[in-house]
Amino acid sequence: MAPIEIVSVNGEKYLPIIDLDKDLTITYNANTDNPNALLKLSMLTKVVGAVAFNKFADFSVGSGKVTIPKEALSNTEISGGTKNMANFEKGENFLLLEKEIITEREDLDDSQKVSEIGTLSLYAKSYASIPVIVRGKQEDKIISAIRITGETENKVGVDFHKPNADSGIPFSRGSKFGLASLTLNVKPYKSETNTSENSWSVGNTKYTQTTTITTTLEFPQLPDEHWDYLLEKFYKEVVAIFKEDYHIEFVPVEDVTNAADYQTFFVDEPVNSFVKVNKTYKNTNRSNPKSLGEIFGNISSNLTNDTPLLRIMKEADVDGLVNIDIDLQVGADKDNRVVLVPTISISIRGRDEQKSNKQATYIEGMLVSKTGNPFNSNQVKADKNAFLNACSISEMVEAFRTSLAAMRAKEIEMGYDKIWNIGE
Q1: 130 phi and psi, to 5 degrees?
Q2: pLDDT 10s per residue in the chain (424 long)?
Q3: What DSSP assignment string belongs to 76-138?
Q4: Residue 59: which of 166, 160, 135 has the closest Cα?
Q5: Cys-Cys crosslink for 40: which of 58, 137, 174, 339, Cβ 3.0 to 4.6 Å?
Q6: In Å, how far are 20, 180, 416 from 122, measured between CA atoms?
Q7: How far apart are CA 55 and CA 18, in angstroms?
Q8: Rounded Cα distance, 128 and 5, in Å
Q9: Quick one: which of 234, 231, 210, 235 has its CA closest to 222?
């Protein structure tokens, strides 16, 4: 691989000064026209007593000159942990420029017998460095993540987060999403028995009174069509939110489920009984392991870019995969009326084709209703809109829309768009 060269930093060739609260301009010779080449910038930082290069920006080869927004210096690859962890070393430091070219499995020919290898990505790298002086401090210090928490007017608790801009991708980079998983788990029946004893004596005789109270909470058993309608309705609401608010389209579900690597997801048998309901939308499978066996079976030592998730995104031609788990559990509200209490977990993983298919997270977190809605069993059976109301679907959808808007506003404020647009 041809070497890479740093020409100047902020217009200086010898011991340039880097102010952490100002934009940074780099000129360089990448010595490549490979469209898959990715350039990365790092500086030295201390991590638990050790010194390491901490990446703060990556970008395509471009024209040989790039401006790094100051926000990037707060969104480092190593972040979080104890106070002041991952801060760049002040005073004398080194700026490292790395050139990385990844050759994926599909770009290799048959003579290399790649079919005999489980996972494969070939990495070629070259480096250049220059001594610098670091001074000042970042306006936002080191950011590890954005977190949106709170409660909506409809008593829905929200808790969503996105990693910092090193691995958290802004919604402005998305154009096509695909549904990877939409599952429904319902516990419509609950029975609790409490026993208490009261003893007293009259003369030499002791009396004991035992009281047993059994409380049963039950949501009516419904045909599959009701639960399928709930999944269809929620999915269409999610699709509408992304199309209307973020101009992101969804590909047909089958484009994802027909991908060769989709078989790596977990299959749950459908159930519809008075004590348990398990359903999935359009034959989607569960993406997250639940049992201990699934968790250990899902552990991988694969450190390459050649992962099932990325291969699915490539085959389906999407830049984001959406996973949704809906849990409904029967309970009682403050007036002892039977309600269904929903919890919805949502995660969106993505990739950026402009950055060598760099994988990142759009958002992950959950919605939890604090109250649930009381219902009339006969109406729930006869009217699907009454059924949706009993499941608090409209409240959960609105809470999700509100959470996404809050996250989008915060990622703009924190410079996520600027960081992901470096060099473009």
Answers
A1: -150, 135
A2: 789 999 999 999 999 999 999 999 999 999 998 888 999 999 999 877 789 999 999 999 988 999 999 999 999 999 865 555 678 999 999 999 999 988 776 666 666 555 655 566 778 899 999 999 999 988 778 889 999 999 999 999 999 999 999 999 999 999 999 999 999 999 998 888 888 888 888 888 888 888 888 878 899 999 999 999 999 999 999 999 999 999 999 999 999 999 999 988 888 889 999 999 999 999 999 887 665 454 544 545 455 567 889 999 999 999 999 999 999 999 999 888 999 999 999 999 999 988 888 999 999 999 999 899 999 999 999 999 999 999 999 999 999 999 999 999 999 999 999 999 998 8
A3: -SS--SSTTTTPBPSEEEEEEEEEEEEEEGGGS-GGG-GGGSSS-EEEEEEEEEEEEEEES--
A4: 166
A5: 58
A6: 34, 27, 29
A7: 15
A8: 6
A9: 231
Number of neighbouring beta carbons within 10 Å of residue 366: 16
Other CB atoms within 10 Å distance of the CB of residue 210: 9
Enter the pTM of the model.
0.88
Give, for 169, the enclosing helix (H) or strand (E): none
Alpha-carbon distance of 144 to 161, in angstroms, equals: 10
Query: Please, what are the domains in the chain?
Result: 5-135 (2.60.40), 145-190+215-420 (no CATH)
Task: Give the span between the Cα atoms of 20 and 261, in whole angstroms.
Answer: 43
